[in-house]
Amino acid sequence: MKKLSIFLLVIGLFSLLSCEKDETKTILKSSPGAPTLTVPGGASLVLLEANALELLTYNWAAADYGAQIIPSYTIEMDKQGNNFADPSSLGAINTKLAYAVLTQDLNAKLLPLLFDPKVMEPLPMEFRVVTIVKNKDGVTIDSIKPVYSAVVKQAITPYYVPIVYPLLGVPGSYQGWNPADSSTTIASLKSNGKYEGYMNFPDANTEYKFTQGPSWDNNWGDTGANGTLDKGGDNIKAAEAGYYKLNVDLVGLTYTAVKTTWAVIGSGTPGGWDTETPMTYDATNKVWTVTVALTAAEIKFRANNAWDINYGDDGANGSLEAGGANIVVPAAGNYIVTLNLSNPIYKYKLTKN
Fold first, then answer.
1. Residues 233, 220: contact at Cβ < 8 Å?
2. Are 166 and 181 in contact (CB under 8 A)?
3. Residue 322 to residues 57, 189, 285, Cα–Cα distance (Å)
4. pTM higher than 0.90, yes or no?
5. How far apart are alpha carbons 294 and 264 in whole angstroms?
6. CA 271, CA 250: separation in Å to the nearest integer?
7. Is the pLDDT of residue 102 over 60?
8. Which residue has the higher pLDDT, 143 or 144?
9. Which residues share a beta bridge with 299?
């Protein structure tokens, strides 16, 4: 009788352990069902400054892993055609199936994507929800691959608000010696006392200075023409007319002024990587342009038929970076290529004819 009781006890314990193992074992689908995203505004959305503090809500259906799993969701946004090479995250959430973002916050993410931040035009954007699974400690489980929703396309028109960077005025004979002219300034993107920008001097022997604020109270020139800035110093002279790259360091009190002409070069251009295609400056619109037949390959912008000053596009987002990645031409055709260096964020545009 005692042996039978012990035998039944062992069987009971084995059964209990087996049940517990089955209950704790997680069975995941090999192909989890993707979430379905709904964006506010439908196919097109116009943002208004009057609604800056209103919330825009993104909704989605849950991803189906075939098990009781609570995934983490992230909403990503990028320009159409960019294949989410450089997406912006609108936000991440763990438990709910909706996320709300302030209109002004979405607007701030869109403004840098405009070719001209003062000209509002619809931006072709696309959105998706990315689903990942984390453990109880909040660490992503790498063995469970992310699940992506279908891409939702939307054209969004932002509203203009100035993007504020520290500015340095460049008043001179070319603009009436007016330190209050906000159109003739260069910017410090990192707010570190170092300023950069491009200025067109249409006449030879143009004279200019640098000013902080819309007055002459704080101004710098170059007494001795040695590249060193002096408080209240002599006027700086550009001997040749042209389009100049200006760099100013108010910490080290130095500056450079390099005359530039611009061209497009690359495997997508008629001359390949060996012969550049010159661009023409449009003084009215303050851009460089060229109409050229391009192939579905790569291009970059460079100055003065050399690589000392060149721009590419890291992240393929329409913004240019010094020495950045090659720019991919999406398809062969005849294009108007536009280079805009007149704003703090340098931009380019490829317009197929």
1. yes
2. no
3. 37, 14, 22
4. no
5. 11
6. 41
7. yes
8. 144
9. 327
